[in-house]
Amino acid sequence: MDYMWMPLKRYADFSGRSRRKEYWLFNLGVVLAYTALLMVSFASTRQNGEPGAVSALVALLFVGIWLALIIPSLAVLVRRLHDQERSGWLVLLAFVPLIGGLVLLVFTLLPGTAGENRYGADPRGDDHQAVFA
Q: Per the confidence metrics, is the pTM higher than 0.90?
């Protein structure tokens, strides 16, 4: 559970490395939060299908959370790329239609480099080095 909050603690820290566990648990938390908001929004719609005041409030909250999470989401993605000794500038692949997002997805699924790399110490510690040595 600590890994889910770690990117928020390191809000705008684009240096260092992040484990797969940290990246994916953070994204799971974001998806769960958005899902909860959508469920509240759907539950608060009127019977005639028109959104009520609660739906408008939920929509504002949704946008606010999205804006608040842009920077930590980018930071944890950059640190995830750093874990594989890749440049954080590869985040710009997201702007390449179709293939860019897929390439980033594959990069986030790949394991990080064992031991220290040019971006810092291994976030998994010495256990990781013993397994891959």
A: no
